[in-house]
From TrEMBL:
Keywords (A to Z) from UniProt: Repeat
Protein name: Uncharacterized protein
Lineage: superkingdom: Eukaryota
Signal sequence segment: none
Organism: Nymphaea colorata
One annotated Gene Ontology cellular component of this protein: endoplasmic reticulum lumen
Keyword Repeat: yes
Amino-acid biosynthesis listed as a keyword: no
Length: 53
């Protein structure tokens, strides 16, 4: 459910909130690959390419 929220935030172009929400997921499970991918996408869309990688 939390990953869906991150996807929706990205779809709504609310990238800062998507980064914050993915951070909560990653605090609970730092190896969650989908959360890492979504967080990278949000950083990419914010044009913060260095952090996105």
């Amino acid at each position: 459910a939390k990953l869906l929220k991150v996807r929706l935030l990205i779809a709504l172009k609310d990238y800062s909130s998507a980064i914050a929400e993915s951070g909560y997921i990653l605090k609970a499970d730092e190896n969650n690959l989908e959360a890492l991918l979504l967080r990278g996408q949000a950083y990419y869309y914010l044009a913060d390419h260095d952090v996105a990688l």
